[in-house]
User: What shape does this take?
Amino acid sequence: MTKPADLPARRHRSGVKPSDLPVHQQRNRQDPLPELSRMSAETPLVEDPGPGINDWVATGRDEVRAILADADRFSTRPPADSPEDSRRLTQVGNPLQYDPPEHTRIHKMLRPEFTVRRIRRLEPAIEKIVADRLDVLERAGQPADLMRHFAWPVPGLVGCSLLGIPRDDQAELARNMDLSRRTDRPRKLVLAAANAFDGYLIRFVAQKRRDPSADDLISTLIREYGQDVLDKELVGFCASLLAAGLENMAGMLGLGTLALLEHPDQLALLRERPELLDQAVEEMFRYVAVVPIASPRTALEDVPIAGRVMKAGEIVSCSLLAVNRAQNPDAPQDDFDITRENNNHMAFGHGVHFCTGAALARMEMRIAVSALLDRFPRLRLAVPVGEVRFRPLTLAAYGVEKLPLAW
Assistant: This one.
Protein backbone atom coordinates (compact mmCIF):
# COMPACT_ATOMS: atom_id res chain seq x y z
CA MET A 1 0.00 0.00 0.00
CA THR A 2 1.21 3.50 -0.78
CA LYS A 3 2.09 5.40 2.40
CA PRO A 4 1.61 9.16 2.90
CA ALA A 5 5.37 9.74 2.67
CA ASP A 6 5.38 8.20 -0.82
CA LEU A 7 2.66 10.42 -2.28
CA PRO A 8 3.59 12.61 -5.24
CA ALA A 9 4.09 16.32 -4.68
CA ARG A 10 0.96 18.49 -4.76
CA ARG A 11 0.59 21.91 -6.33
CA HIS A 12 -1.60 24.34 -4.40
CA ARG A 13 -4.21 26.32 -6.29
CA SER A 14 -4.96 29.45 -4.31
CA GLY A 15 -6.58 32.85 -4.65
CA VAL A 16 -10.15 31.52 -4.62
CA LYS A 17 -12.86 34.18 -4.44
CA PRO A 18 -16.38 33.42 -3.13
CA SER A 19 -17.81 33.97 -6.62
CA ASP A 20 -15.46 31.27 -7.93
CA LEU A 21 -16.64 28.62 -5.49
CA PRO A 22 -18.03 25.40 -6.97
CA VAL A 23 -21.65 24.38 -6.50
CA HIS A 24 -20.96 22.13 -3.51
CA GLN A 25 -19.57 25.08 -1.54
CA GLN A 26 -22.28 27.63 -2.34
CA ARG A 27 -25.56 28.29 -0.55
CA ASN A 28 -28.65 30.40 -0.85
CA ARG A 29 -28.75 31.51 2.79
CA GLN A 30 -29.11 28.17 4.60
CA ASP A 31 -30.09 26.15 1.54
CA PRO A 32 -27.89 24.29 -0.96
CA LEU A 33 -28.22 25.30 -4.57
CA PRO A 34 -30.63 23.17 -6.66
CA GLU A 35 -27.67 22.16 -8.83
CA LEU A 36 -26.16 20.32 -5.87
CA SER A 37 -29.17 18.01 -5.65
CA ARG A 38 -28.89 17.19 -9.33
CA MET A 39 -25.16 16.56 -8.97
CA SER A 40 -25.73 14.29 -5.97
CA ALA A 41 -28.39 12.26 -7.81
CA GLU A 42 -26.79 12.10 -11.27
CA THR A 43 -23.01 12.39 -10.79
CA PRO A 44 -22.23 11.63 -7.13
CA LEU A 45 -18.47 11.56 -7.80
CA VAL A 46 -17.04 14.07 -10.27
CA GLU A 47 -13.64 15.41 -11.20
CA ASP A 48 -13.12 18.93 -9.83
CA PRO A 49 -11.77 21.43 -12.37
CA GLY A 50 -11.98 24.33 -9.91
CA PRO A 51 -9.19 26.48 -8.50
CA GLY A 52 -8.95 24.63 -5.16
CA ILE A 53 -6.75 21.70 -4.15
CA ASN A 54 -9.26 18.96 -4.94
CA ASP A 55 -9.14 16.53 -7.84
CA TRP A 56 -12.56 15.03 -7.03
CA VAL A 57 -15.81 15.98 -5.32
CA ALA A 58 -18.10 13.38 -3.72
CA THR A 59 -21.72 14.42 -3.15
CA GLY A 60 -23.57 11.08 -3.00
CA ARG A 61 -24.38 9.56 0.39
CA ASP A 62 -22.97 6.12 -0.47
CA GLU A 63 -19.81 7.59 -1.98
CA VAL A 64 -19.17 9.97 0.93
CA ARG A 65 -19.74 7.23 3.50
CA ALA A 66 -17.41 4.87 1.65
CA ILE A 67 -14.59 7.43 1.46
CA LEU A 68 -14.87 8.66 5.04
CA ALA A 69 -15.06 5.11 6.39
CA ASP A 70 -11.94 3.92 4.52
CA ALA A 71 -8.93 4.95 6.62
CA ASP A 72 -6.81 2.24 4.93
CA ARG A 73 -6.99 3.76 1.46
CA PHE A 74 -7.58 7.45 2.24
CA SER A 75 -5.36 9.74 4.31
CA THR A 76 -6.63 12.74 6.27
CA ARG A 77 -3.24 14.41 6.61
CA PRO A 78 -3.10 17.99 5.26
CA PRO A 79 -2.67 18.19 1.48
CA ALA A 80 0.60 19.91 0.58
CA ASP A 81 3.20 20.38 -2.15
CA SER A 82 5.28 17.47 -0.81
CA PRO A 83 5.12 14.75 1.85
CA GLU A 84 7.54 16.80 3.96
CA ASP A 85 5.24 19.82 3.79
CA SER A 86 2.30 17.61 4.77
CA ARG A 87 4.11 16.49 7.91
CA ARG A 88 5.10 20.07 8.69
CA LEU A 89 1.50 21.30 8.29
CA THR A 90 0.05 18.60 10.54
CA GLN A 91 -1.10 20.18 13.79
CA VAL A 92 0.38 18.02 16.52
CA GLY A 93 -2.38 16.67 18.73
CA ASN A 94 -5.24 17.38 16.29
CA PRO A 95 -6.95 13.99 15.76
CA LEU A 96 -8.43 15.10 12.41
CA GLN A 97 -4.94 15.36 10.91
CA TYR A 98 -3.69 11.90 11.85
CA ASP A 99 -4.08 8.51 10.20
CA PRO A 100 -4.04 5.18 12.03
CA PRO A 101 -2.09 3.99 13.94
CA GLU A 102 -1.21 7.49 15.26
CA HIS A 103 -4.87 8.48 15.21
CA THR A 104 -5.81 5.30 17.06
CA ARG A 105 -3.40 6.14 19.89
CA ILE A 106 -4.71 9.70 20.27
CA HIS A 107 -8.35 8.68 19.94
CA LYS A 108 -7.87 6.01 22.62
CA MET A 109 -6.71 8.74 25.01
CA LEU A 110 -9.52 11.17 24.25
CA ARG A 111 -12.51 8.86 23.72
CA PRO A 112 -13.15 7.95 27.40
CA GLU A 113 -13.31 11.65 28.30
CA PHE A 114 -16.02 12.36 25.70
CA THR A 115 -18.49 9.58 26.40
CA VAL A 116 -22.04 10.64 27.24
CA ARG A 117 -21.54 9.52 30.85
CA ARG A 118 -18.36 11.58 31.36
CA ILE A 119 -19.70 14.63 29.54
CA ARG A 120 -22.71 14.69 31.87
CA ARG A 121 -20.35 15.93 34.58
CA LEU A 122 -20.23 19.22 32.68
CA GLU A 123 -24.01 19.66 32.58
CA PRO A 124 -24.27 21.91 35.67
CA ALA A 125 -21.40 24.08 34.42
CA ILE A 126 -22.95 24.40 30.96
CA GLU A 127 -26.34 25.29 32.44
CA LYS A 128 -24.74 28.06 34.49
CA ILE A 129 -22.77 29.40 31.51
CA VAL A 130 -25.94 29.47 29.39
CA ALA A 131 -27.97 31.16 32.13
CA ASP A 132 -25.27 33.79 32.69
CA ARG A 133 -25.04 34.59 28.99
CA LEU A 134 -28.83 34.84 28.70
CA ASP A 135 -28.66 37.40 31.52
CA VAL A 136 -26.12 39.34 29.47
CA LEU A 137 -28.29 39.08 26.36
CA GLU A 138 -31.34 40.33 28.24
CA ARG A 139 -29.45 43.23 29.84
CA ALA A 140 -28.20 44.30 26.40
CA GLY A 141 -31.77 45.33 25.59
CA GLN A 142 -33.82 44.89 22.45
CA PRO A 143 -32.73 44.35 19.78
CA ALA A 144 -29.78 42.26 20.98
CA ASP A 145 -27.30 40.35 18.85
CA LEU A 146 -27.46 36.64 19.72
CA MET A 147 -24.05 36.01 18.16
CA ARG A 148 -22.18 38.62 20.19
CA HIS A 149 -23.83 38.04 23.54
CA PHE A 150 -24.62 34.31 23.44
CA ALA A 151 -23.63 32.16 20.45
CA TRP A 152 -19.93 33.04 20.49
CA PRO A 153 -19.32 33.25 24.27
CA VAL A 154 -21.12 30.03 25.27
CA PRO A 155 -18.95 27.49 23.39
CA GLY A 156 -15.77 29.38 24.29
CA LEU A 157 -16.63 29.28 27.99
CA VAL A 158 -17.67 25.61 27.78
CA GLY A 159 -14.37 24.72 26.11
CA CYS A 160 -12.40 26.57 28.78
CA SER A 161 -14.38 24.80 31.50
CA LEU A 162 -13.68 21.40 29.94
CA LEU A 163 -9.95 22.08 29.71
CA GLY A 164 -9.64 23.74 33.11
CA ILE A 165 -8.56 27.18 31.89
CA PRO A 166 -8.90 29.70 34.76
CA ARG A 167 -11.76 32.18 34.45
CA ASP A 168 -9.42 35.16 34.75
CA ASP A 169 -7.55 34.03 31.60
CA GLN A 170 -10.53 33.21 29.42
CA ALA A 171 -11.36 36.63 27.97
CA GLU A 172 -7.83 37.39 26.73
CA LEU A 173 -7.39 33.86 25.41
CA ALA A 174 -10.66 34.16 23.45
CA ARG A 175 -9.61 37.52 21.98
CA ASN A 176 -6.26 36.16 20.83
CA MET A 177 -7.85 33.05 19.36
CA ASP A 178 -10.39 35.12 17.43
CA LEU A 179 -7.80 37.59 16.16
CA SER A 180 -5.37 34.85 15.14
CA ARG A 181 -7.98 33.48 12.69
CA ARG A 182 -8.95 36.81 11.10
CA THR A 183 -8.09 37.62 7.50
CA ASP A 184 -9.24 41.26 7.63
CA ARG A 185 -6.59 42.50 10.08
CA PRO A 186 -2.91 43.44 9.58
CA ARG A 187 -0.71 40.34 9.30
CA LYS A 188 1.61 41.55 12.05
CA LEU A 189 -1.30 41.84 14.47
CA VAL A 190 -2.67 38.42 13.52
CA LEU A 191 0.72 36.75 14.00
CA ALA A 192 1.18 38.42 17.39
CA ALA A 193 -2.23 37.14 18.52
CA ALA A 194 -1.43 33.62 17.27
CA ASN A 195 1.88 33.62 19.13
CA ALA A 196 0.17 34.86 22.30
CA PHE A 197 -2.52 32.15 21.99
CA ASP A 198 0.05 29.38 21.45
CA GLY A 199 2.31 30.75 24.19
CA TYR A 200 -0.53 30.75 26.70
CA LEU A 201 -1.43 27.12 25.94
CA ILE A 202 2.21 26.03 26.27
CA ARG A 203 2.43 27.65 29.72
CA PHE A 204 -0.99 26.29 30.68
CA VAL A 205 -0.01 22.69 29.85
CA ALA A 206 3.32 23.09 31.65
CA GLN A 207 1.49 24.22 34.77
CA LYS A 208 -0.91 21.28 34.52
CA ARG A 209 2.07 18.94 34.16
CA ARG A 210 3.45 20.27 37.47
CA ASP A 211 0.10 19.88 39.24
CA PRO A 212 -2.43 17.61 37.49
CA SER A 213 -4.73 17.28 40.48
CA ALA A 214 -7.76 19.14 39.08
CA ASP A 215 -10.82 17.46 37.58
CA ASP A 216 -10.44 18.67 33.99
CA LEU A 217 -9.53 17.07 30.66
CA ILE A 218 -5.84 18.00 30.55
CA SER A 219 -5.16 17.05 34.18
CA THR A 220 -6.94 13.74 33.66
CA LEU A 221 -4.89 12.90 30.56
CA ILE A 222 -1.64 13.71 32.39
CA ARG A 223 -2.61 11.58 35.39
CA GLU A 224 -3.66 8.62 33.24
CA TYR A 225 -0.94 8.68 30.58
CA GLY A 226 1.99 10.50 32.19
CA GLN A 227 4.93 10.85 29.83
CA ASP A 228 3.15 8.77 27.17
CA VAL A 229 1.29 11.94 26.19
CA LEU A 230 3.62 14.77 25.14
CA ASP A 231 3.17 18.40 26.14
CA LYS A 232 3.00 19.43 22.47
CA GLU A 233 0.18 16.89 21.95
CA LEU A 234 -1.72 18.33 24.91
CA VAL A 235 -1.26 21.84 23.48
CA GLY A 236 -2.64 20.55 20.16
CA PHE A 237 -5.63 18.96 21.92
CA CYS A 238 -6.40 22.31 23.57
CA ALA A 239 -6.00 24.38 20.40
CA SER A 240 -8.06 22.08 18.15
CA LEU A 241 -10.83 21.63 20.72
CA LEU A 242 -11.14 25.35 21.40
CA ALA A 243 -11.03 26.35 17.73
CA ALA A 244 -13.42 23.70 16.41
CA GLY A 245 -15.75 23.94 19.38
CA LEU A 246 -15.93 27.72 19.16
CA GLU A 247 -16.53 28.16 15.43
CA ASN A 248 -18.72 25.11 14.88
CA MET A 249 -20.91 25.58 17.94
CA ALA A 250 -21.24 29.34 17.48
CA GLY A 251 -22.39 28.63 13.93
CA MET A 252 -24.82 25.98 15.15
CA LEU A 253 -26.34 28.19 17.85
CA GLY A 254 -26.85 31.04 15.40
CA LEU A 255 -28.09 29.06 12.42
CA GLY A 256 -30.13 26.64 14.53
CA THR A 257 -31.96 29.52 16.21
CA LEU A 258 -32.52 31.14 12.83
CA ALA A 259 -33.94 27.89 11.43
CA LEU A 260 -36.50 27.78 14.24
CA LEU A 261 -37.45 31.42 13.79
CA GLU A 262 -37.80 31.00 10.02
CA HIS A 263 -40.14 28.03 10.59
CA PRO A 264 -42.67 29.33 13.14
CA ASP A 265 -44.78 26.19 12.86
CA GLN A 266 -41.84 24.10 14.01
CA LEU A 267 -41.00 26.56 16.78
CA ALA A 268 -44.61 26.45 17.99
CA LEU A 269 -44.57 22.65 17.88
CA LEU A 270 -41.39 22.53 19.97
CA ARG A 271 -42.89 24.87 22.56
CA GLU A 272 -46.04 22.74 22.65
CA ARG A 273 -44.13 19.45 22.80
CA PRO A 274 -40.81 19.97 24.63
CA GLU A 275 -40.24 16.22 24.55
CA LEU A 276 -39.25 16.75 20.89
CA LEU A 277 -36.12 18.66 21.95
CA ASP A 278 -33.67 15.83 21.16
CA GLN A 279 -35.17 15.32 17.70
CA ALA A 280 -35.20 19.07 17.12
CA VAL A 281 -31.50 19.32 17.95
CA GLU A 282 -30.65 16.48 15.55
CA GLU A 283 -32.72 18.18 12.84
CA MET A 284 -30.82 21.43 13.43
CA PHE A 285 -27.49 19.65 13.00
CA ARG A 286 -28.73 18.07 9.76
CA TYR A 287 -30.40 21.15 8.33
CA VAL A 288 -27.66 23.65 9.17
CA ALA A 289 -24.68 21.52 8.06
CA VAL A 290 -22.42 24.12 9.66
CA VAL A 291 -19.33 22.21 8.43
CA PRO A 292 -20.24 21.81 4.75
CA ILE A 293 -17.20 19.77 3.71
CA ALA A 294 -15.26 17.06 5.54
CA SER A 295 -11.50 17.51 5.79
CA PRO A 296 -9.89 16.52 2.44
CA ARG A 297 -8.92 12.90 1.88
CA THR A 298 -5.92 11.83 -0.20
CA ALA A 299 -6.03 8.46 -1.95
CA LEU A 300 -3.15 6.22 -0.81
CA GLU A 301 -3.64 3.85 -3.74
CA ASP A 302 -5.79 3.64 -6.84
CA VAL A 303 -9.39 3.37 -5.57
CA PRO A 304 -12.32 2.32 -7.79
CA ILE A 305 -15.50 4.08 -6.65
CA ALA A 306 -18.81 4.98 -8.33
CA GLY A 307 -17.56 3.60 -11.64
CA ARG A 308 -14.47 5.84 -11.60
CA VAL A 309 -10.87 5.29 -10.49
CA MET A 310 -9.31 7.73 -8.07
CA LYS A 311 -5.53 7.61 -8.52
CA ALA A 312 -3.01 7.45 -5.68
CA GLY A 313 -2.16 10.97 -4.55
CA GLU A 314 -5.42 12.52 -5.75
CA ILE A 315 -7.50 14.55 -3.30
CA VAL A 316 -11.24 14.26 -2.80
CA SER A 317 -13.61 16.66 -1.07
CA CYS A 318 -16.70 15.09 0.56
CA SER A 319 -19.77 17.34 0.71
CA LEU A 320 -21.59 16.95 4.02
CA LEU A 321 -24.00 19.66 2.88
CA ALA A 322 -25.02 17.47 -0.06
CA VAL A 323 -25.41 14.37 2.09
CA ASN A 324 -27.50 16.19 4.71
CA ARG A 325 -29.58 18.48 2.51
CA ALA A 326 -29.52 17.65 -1.21
CA GLN A 327 -31.66 14.54 -1.01
CA ASN A 328 -34.17 15.03 -3.80
CA PRO A 329 -33.34 16.77 -7.10
CA ASP A 330 -37.01 17.67 -7.57
CA ALA A 331 -37.26 19.29 -4.12
CA PRO A 332 -33.75 20.49 -3.23
CA GLN A 333 -34.83 22.80 -0.42
CA ASP A 334 -36.00 20.02 1.86
CA ASP A 335 -38.25 20.67 4.83
CA PHE A 336 -37.09 21.57 8.31
CA ASP A 337 -38.95 18.96 10.36
CA ILE A 338 -38.27 18.51 14.07
CA THR A 339 -40.36 15.31 14.11
CA ARG A 340 -38.02 13.62 11.61
CA GLU A 341 -37.19 10.08 12.73
CA ASN A 342 -34.14 8.01 11.77
CA ASN A 343 -32.23 11.23 11.17
CA ASN A 344 -29.06 9.65 9.81
CA HIS A 345 -27.24 12.90 9.14
CA MET A 346 -23.46 13.18 8.85
CA ALA A 347 -23.00 16.55 10.52
CA PHE A 348 -20.35 14.95 12.76
CA GLY A 349 -18.62 13.10 9.94
CA HIS A 350 -18.28 9.34 9.61
CA GLY A 351 -15.75 6.60 10.21
CA VAL A 352 -12.70 6.79 12.48
CA HIS A 353 -12.74 10.59 12.29
CA PHE A 354 -16.32 10.90 13.56
CA CYS A 355 -16.35 13.99 15.79
CA THR A 356 -14.93 13.13 19.22
CA GLY A 357 -16.94 15.94 20.80
CA ALA A 358 -20.34 14.96 19.34
CA ALA A 359 -21.86 14.15 22.75
CA LEU A 360 -20.68 17.49 24.13
CA ALA A 361 -22.04 19.38 21.10
CA ARG A 362 -25.43 17.72 21.45
CA MET A 363 -25.60 18.53 25.17
CA GLU A 364 -24.61 22.15 24.54
CA MET A 365 -27.31 22.56 21.90
CA ARG A 366 -30.02 20.94 24.04
CA ILE A 367 -29.25 23.10 27.06
CA ALA A 368 -28.81 26.32 25.06
CA VAL A 369 -31.90 25.97 22.87
CA SER A 370 -34.15 24.91 25.74
CA ALA A 371 -32.98 27.76 27.99
CA LEU A 372 -33.23 30.36 25.22
CA LEU A 373 -36.83 29.43 24.42
CA ASP A 374 -37.80 29.23 28.09
CA ARG A 375 -36.31 32.65 28.86
CA PHE A 376 -37.96 34.37 25.90
CA PRO A 377 -41.44 32.98 25.12
CA ARG A 378 -41.95 35.62 22.39
CA LEU A 379 -38.51 35.31 20.80
CA ARG A 380 -38.41 36.68 17.25
CA LEU A 381 -36.14 38.27 14.67
CA ALA A 382 -35.70 42.02 15.16
CA VAL A 383 -34.99 42.59 11.45
CA PRO A 384 -36.59 41.30 8.24
CA VAL A 385 -35.32 37.83 7.35
CA GLY A 386 -33.64 39.16 4.22
CA GLU A 387 -31.44 41.49 6.28
CA VAL A 388 -29.73 38.69 8.23
CA ARG A 389 -26.09 38.64 7.10
CA PHE A 390 -24.17 35.39 6.70
CA ARG A 391 -20.46 34.72 7.14
CA PRO A 392 -18.30 34.24 4.01
CA LEU A 393 -18.70 30.90 2.27
CA THR A 394 -14.92 30.57 2.11
CA LEU A 395 -14.71 29.90 5.87
CA ALA A 396 -14.51 26.31 7.14
CA ALA A 397 -17.61 26.75 9.32
CA TYR A 398 -20.74 28.50 8.07
CA GLY A 399 -22.74 30.93 10.19
CA VAL A 400 -24.43 34.28 10.56
CA GLU A 401 -22.52 37.50 11.23
CA LYS A 402 -25.21 39.03 13.43
CA LEU A 403 -28.59 37.78 14.58
CA PRO A 404 -30.64 40.68 16.07
CA LEU A 405 -33.43 39.37 18.28
CA ALA A 406 -36.37 40.79 20.15
CA TRP A 407 -38.63 39.21 22.75
Remarks:
- The radius of gyration is 21 Å.
